[in-house]
Structure formats: C-alpha cells, structure tokens
Design brief:
The chain has two domains: 133 residues, Alpha-Beta Complex (Aspartate Aminotransferase, domain 1); 238 residues, Type I PLP-dependent aspartate aminotransferase-like (Major domain) (Aspartate Aminotransferase, domain 2, 3-Layer(aba) Sandwich). The strands form three sheets. It has a seven-stranded mixed β-sheet with strand order 2-8-7-6-5-3-4, sandwiched between helices. A three-stranded antiparallel β-sheet has the order 9-10-12. Strands 1-11 form a two-stranded parallel sheet. By secondary structure, the protein is α/β, with parallel strands linked by helices. The relative contact order is 0.16. The chain has 14 helices and twelve strands.
Length: 382
C-alpha cells in the first residue's frame, strides 16, 4: 500500500495529462528542435507551444521565457547573471535569511568572489518587512532576490512592495516562485519582478526542467556557454520531452488554478483543524494569513521530528526542509524565525496537493495522532 502523500512541497507526481502530452515525444517525435528537417520542425514547434503556454500563465511575452534544467539552475543564472552583467554598477546583493539553499548558497559563493551580500532577518512568521529592503539598498546594490513563498512554512513574502521599493532605486528584483506557482496566482507584472524562477517538478511536471523569466531589457552574464540555443540565453539542446510536459502543466494551472487552490485550502484546513484541536500544545509556524493554501508546518512540543516520521508508516511528510530529509536539524528557516527549541526539533511539514482526498486526510490525522500520543507518553514517563 502506498503511503498517504503529504509532501507535495518536496515534489509532485506528474499529472496524467502531462504524462500523456509527453509520450509522443518519447518515441515518435524525437527530432532535435534545431534541425531543419520535418522531425526537427515538429520538435521546435512543440518547444515554442510550451513557451507560449508558460508565458500565458506568467502574463509575459514568450521570448521572456528561458528553459533551464530546473529551479536551482534558474536561481543560479538569475543571481550570478545579474552580478556579472552589472558589476560595473555595483557589487551588492540583498536577500533574506529564510531563502532556499539554491539562493543562499549562490550568494555565499558570490561573497567568496568579492561580492557583498546582505541577509535580511525575517520576523517570527518568516515574513520580510519591505522597509528593511529600503534601508539596506545602497548605491552599489544591483539585485534584490527574495522567494515568493517559503518552502518550509508557506509564508508569502511581499514581493510587489519590495519590487516597487527596489525599482525606485534602480535595483533589479528576482523572485524564486518555485513554491507559489500552481498554488496561487503568479503574474510577473503584478509582482513587478525582473526575473522569476519556475521549477517544473513542484507543479506536476517532470523533474529536470524549469524556467527563468527574464524581463525584456534585463542583461545577464551567461551561465552555460556553447551554441546559441534559447535565443542565445542558454547553450544546450532543448529537453523537448520535459519542456512539453512543463508546457502542459502550466496550461492546466492557467485553466484550473481557482479549483486547485480551493481544493488545497480545504485539505490543509481539514488537516490543521484535526491536529491542532487534538494537540493544543502544538504550534503552527508561518504567517497566519499570508500563506500558501497547501502548507502546514506544525511543531509538536518536546518531541523529535525524526522519531515522529519513523513512526508514520503510512504517511509521507518532511522534517524541516525536504533537501535535508536524511537528518533532522533545526532548519535555518525555523532558526531565523526564532522558533523555541522545544518546538523546533519536533517540526513536521505537511503539504497537500491537487490529488489529496478528504478520506486520506482523515486516515493521516488518525495515524499522526496515534504516533504523537505514543511519543508524548514515552517522553512524560522517561
């Protein structure tokens, strides 16, 4: 029996409609999209159709959509690309203390290369005050990079306000939207960003495909050199199969997002009410209102997350960030939010998705409750 999957923020299953769209390009339409013969023409047309679908979802122009190998590459390209292309204007980057490693580690790398990076603190909800961004900007600042939605606690950051402040000072803005796309509306003009990251496997497309949105007029120093693929933004033959999958996934989001969002909210609320009512000593992390519709970061007091997960034989969830699921440490996000140690070590991230059912939530709540009760009893008797 497969476990009840409550780890959609780590990765999503491929939507059956996405898989169906990809299949012809696995066996039949295998041409190189740069080739001029019929097989190449078919592949090229498929890549451009996917680009159009993604552009519609993001509210941008197709030529502003650059395919990458995933969210991590897109983040690297955005941050390193701006740092290199605008080095004559300045050497300062602003980010937050609650970013994903795909941003934090890039910034640390650039610090080693001589760039200055400001890591802004977040409040107890993991929320960034736009005024902090304004105060941190100097005449050397070239980029502000802040995630749209936190992968661990689901807090939504005020990207639009941050972008307005940054642009008044002539500073570019990048938003990592890996966790927000497919869960809430994401429009590049509404957010006001210059660069934006998309990760395919977070939105029911395959792993190994992503997008960097680059607003017209923005310059980037190349990350990958070679031939002039992707409008000369990124070298390497396009991953046609997965690009087609990502395009279909984005089309589904564009057409069905209100339904997806409503369903995830119901599933999340059912899970939270079931657990928080049973365990009043537990703690819900993240912003109470500005949050993703699918994410519940719950801390169980005086318990250890690894022991909770070990006891959950029928429920798949995460302790802290999914990227560190092989060991339990107080995550940098919870640490930045000043979550007390007695809660932080017992934090589990549950993330529902479009395929989660109410009956699954009932079964999961029962198993989680059983494990928490057993561990609590063991803790109090020791």
């Amino acid at each position: 029996m497969e476990p009840i999957y409550l780890d959609y923020n780590a990765t999503t299953p491929i939507d059956p409609q996405v898989a169906e769209a990809m299949l012809p390009f696995v066996h039949q339409h295998y041409g190189n999209p740069s080739s001029s013969h019929p097989l190449g023409v078919i592949a090229h047309a498929a890549v451009e159709e996917a680009r159009d679908r993604i552009a519609k979802m993001l509210g941008c122009q197709p030529q502003e959509v650059v395919f990458t190998s995933g969210g991590t590459e897109a983040n690297n390209y955005a941050i390193k690309g701006v740092a290199g292309a605008y080095s004559a204007q300045g050497n300062h980057i602003i980010t937050s203390s609650v970013e994903h490693p795909a941003v934090i580690e890039v910034c640390r790398f650039l610090e080693e290369k001589g760039k200055r990076v400001t890591y802004l603190p977040a409040d107890r909800f993991g929320y960034l005050d736009p005024q902090q961004v304004s105060d941190a900007i100097t005449d050397q600042t070239v980029l502000v990079t802040v995630m749209h939605a936190n992968n661990e606690v689901g807090t939504l950051e005020p990207i639009r306000e941050i972008a307005e402040i940054a642009h008044q000072r002539g500073v570019l803005v990048h938003a990592d939207c890996a966790q927000s796309i497919g869960k809430i509306p994401v429009d590049v003009d509404h957010l006001g960003v210059d660069l934006l990251t998309v990760a395919g496997h977070k939105l029911y497309a395959p792993k190994g495909i992503g997008v960097l949105y680059v607003r017209t007029g923005v310059r980037l120093e190349k990350l990958i050199h070679g031939a002039n693929h992707e409008m000369n933004w990124r070298a390497g033959t396009e991953n046609v199969i997965e690009i087609v999958g990502l395009g279909k996934a984005c089309q589904l989001i564009h057409e069905n997002l209100p339904e997806y969002q409503s369903h995830m909210t119901r599933m999340r609320d059912q899970l939270e009410s079931g657990l928080l009512d049973r365990f009043p000593d537990s703690r819900l992390n993240g912003h109470p209102e500005n949050r993703l519709p699918n994410t519940s970061s719950i801390s169980f007091k005086n318990l250890e997350a690894n022991r909770i997960l070990d006891g959950l034989t029928s429920v798949a969830a995460s302790a802290g960030a999914a990227c560190h699921s092989d060991r339990v440490e107080v995550s940098s996000v919870l640490e930045a939010m000043n979550v007390p140690m007695e809660y932080a070590m017992g934090t589990i991230r549950f993330s529902v998705g479009r395929f989660t059912t109410s009956s699954e939530i009932e079964l999961a709540t029962a198993e989680i409750s059983k494990v928490i009760n057993e561990l609590t009893l063991a803790h109090t008797t020791n």
